[in-house]
Amino acid sequence: MENSEKAHLQMQPIDSHSPRKENHEVTAVGINNADGVNNTDNVDNAEKMFSLSEDAADYDPHKHRNRPHPTSNFETLVHLLKGSLGTGILAMPNAFYNSGLLVGVIATIIIGALCTYCLHILVKAQYKLCKRLRVPILSYPDSMKYALEKGPRSVSWFSPYAPGLVDGFMITYQMGICCVYIVFVATNIKQVTDQYWEPLSVSTHMLILLLPLILINYIRNLKLLAPFSTVANLITFVGLGMILKYMFEDLPPVSSREMFGTLRNFSLYFGTTLFALEAVGVIIALENNMKTPQNFGGNCGVLNIGMTVIVVLYIAMGFFGYIKYGPEAAGSVTFNLPKDEVMAQSIKIMFAIAIFITYALQAYVPVEILWTTYLDHRIRNRKLLWEYVCRTAVTLVTFVLAIAIPRLGLFISLFGALCLSALGIAFPAIIEICVLWPENDFGPLKVMLIKNILLIFFGLLGLVVGTYVSIVDIVNSFK
Q1: Strand, coil or helix: what is 221?
Q2: pLDDT for the residue numbered 104
Q3: Which domains, ranges and CATH numbers included, belong to the chain?
Q4: What parts of the sequence cross the membrane (predicted)?
Q5: For 430-446, how does the pLDDT look when each residue is reduced to its tens digit (9 = 90+)?
């Protein structure tokens, strides 16, 4: 990460020059044109921008992007891989326990392909919107807004509120990740320290972590965290290798595990796998910051290569982890490692350090959305002080939630089902329908329209069922 702006772009899809930050009227007047000059005319000009004139058809957004430090194809692939190797992959053995061994393998491939496809249609739809609006980049929330404006009348009325909805899901998801991280770090540290000192509760360990979490979230320039982030990524890869060593020791036969799980528990698997696989905010931001964004898609593009590697790694971790630990597979496979072995303890401490550092990166996203989009323009005096108040508040909210619900596996499933069913599946399908609507370009027999309606239904079904089952299980876990 060369600077805070670049780090911001790599972590989330909220562009620092979002139209909503320039002009908060419910029109398209805040769009920056290709030359970087604000268009402050009325809605009639916005209508002209939306019309597919010959100039708009010739406009290539990729050629007008001006990134200070664009990433190469390989760098983007590395960012994509390291952005997906966190607590999610450590939860895959527990996910396979909920789905069954055979169903877990097949369903992970299907969900991975589905997530990849939805990312493809989102990127393509954003590209078409950029051509119409003659802008080089649109953020995810603004893409939703301007797509709905030209979509069916039944949804166009909602366009002014769409950015807030997308931001809400994004904030909820990112703060959910932070809650998961707090529980993960505290539990791993507890399992190690309990072997040497008087045992303390998980809540006490979280309380000890609170001040360091607040302080690390006070870092406004993520360039300062870049060296630590590199160390965290190295630790993660080494730790995963050490975990696999434990998994392959005295591996039980495959026949000792269930091939099929229950339908009810499959919703927990679905939420966990979505949480692990789907990183729509990071992926869209990476595409926006590429030197050659045209190489992001395609059969052998960066996205397909990266997602293929990720799906294979997740299947391997889930498959062998469930065979090894069976019904005892915990919300993080590190919890299943021996508590009294030095090597296992070192793995837990390594991952605790890596995830603690990553907390600052994940918390950066909701802080930026809340502060830059909704608070900064409303505060006139002592802006720096109030920004630190915002950062403190975000940390405290994640801390309170983690204290209240210290159930790692259920937390992961809840936020995966609640947020990523919408952000990663339903919303991209809605955007594509609205982008294709003006030209009625749905192909023969309206196949594109039917396909997207099915995706929306599937995403909403996963959201409702997965969220409901996760909340019920969280409540039951306290009884």
Answers
A1: coil
A2: 94
A3: 67-478 (1.20.1740.10)
A4: 101-123, 161-184, 196-219, 231-248, 268-286, 298-323, 343-365, 385-405, 411-437, 449-471
A5: 999 999 988 877 878 78
